[in-house]
Amino acid sequence: MATEIPIMDMSLYGLDVVSEKEVDTVTIRSLAESLCGALRDVGFCYIKNHGFKQSLIDRIMSVNRTFFEMPVEYKSTYLRQESGVTYGWVPRETESLNLTNLSDYKEAFNYPPTEGIVLIPDLKDYKETMDEFRTSCIRLVNRILDLMSVGLELEDRHFLRKCHQAIGEKDNKSSLRALYYPEIPTNKDIKPNQVRCGEHTDYGSLTMLFQDDVGGLEVCNQQGKYVPASPIPGTILINIGDMMQRWTSDTLIATKHRILMPNDEMKKRRSRQSFAFFVQPDDDVMIKCLDNSNKYEPISSLQYLQERLAPTY
Predict the structure, then answer these.
(1) Cα 164 to Cα 141: distance, rounded to the nearest angstrom
(2) What pTM value is reported for the model?
(3) Strand 44-48 and strand 7-9: pairing?
């Protein structure tokens, strides 16, 4: 498969490395520099040998397919509220990530934080699987953030990790999001220019994406051409968002990506699933240029996210 997106080997600092404290900075520096190079030049990177259990990925695909295939009446019980709360079910054609396009032909479920939330589907093994998945995501994210801190030559290798200490709690807006792109029935009239997911950049500091084998994601390269970000077995796709680009004074880049309607008739008859772990700094973290250039005014993580989310729905 031809791709312009680098593939990084995480074996030196993946989850299979039981004690990360025993790994010194010198050991991971080359990996860190390569990672930041990919996020600087492309904005996306595949990682392999990351230590994330494939069996857990398979389970989360299964329990969420069960949810998305439930009747609308059932899913509506878990509907995302319009009061500024981001968790819950997002029905088909509710969002428009590219505001010049029609609503995206997809639906989603945003999994809530761990504290005081009851809006969780009552399906067998759902909560247990999602909680375990998020825990593994957080562990891997922490290691990726360490690599980024080293690659950005920050004095503290754990600086970015320390800015994300409350992931999964109420004071951090990181989001585990299940995405479902329904099959396109033969009797369904797709509107002109409608897409599965409109061209956009992500908002936060980092995204981890888990794809099924259907494919369809495309990434815009520096020449303005969209190239496939096809699923590669055993890998996770990572990219940064606008907040991290701002934080690094445009050293790292947030890259546009999209999912068009498939042209292939067989692919039209297949649904598509993916899971995105959208990583945000803790709400009160001030996003101030890491190089002290003051290229952008400081802004809190929470305020930045609120400003970005407002036009989406």
Answers:
(1) 9
(2) 0.91
(3) parallel
User: Between 3.40.50.300, 3.30.565.10, 3.90.190.20, 2.60.120.330, what CATH number should domain 7-309 receive?
Assistant: 2.60.120.330
Beta strand 175-181 with 257-259 is unpaired
Element (H, E) at 299: strand 299-300
> Which residues on adjacent β-strands are paired with residue 236?
47
pLDDT at residue 61 tops 50: yes
In the chain, the amino acid numbered 238 is I
**Exposure letters 133-150 (e unless 16+ CB within 10 A, then b):** bbebbbebbbbbbbbbbb
- Look at residue 1 in the predicted model and tell me its pLDDT: 34
Residue boundaries of the structural domains of the chain: 7-309
pLDDT tens by residue, 93-136: 665 555 555 677 789 999 987 666 678 899 999 999 999 999 99
**Helix 54-68 × helix 126-151 angle, to 10°:** 130
Cβ distance 182 to 160 under 8 Å?
Answer: no
92 closest CA partner among 80, 84, 249, 116: 80
How does the average pLDDT of the chain come out, rounded? 88
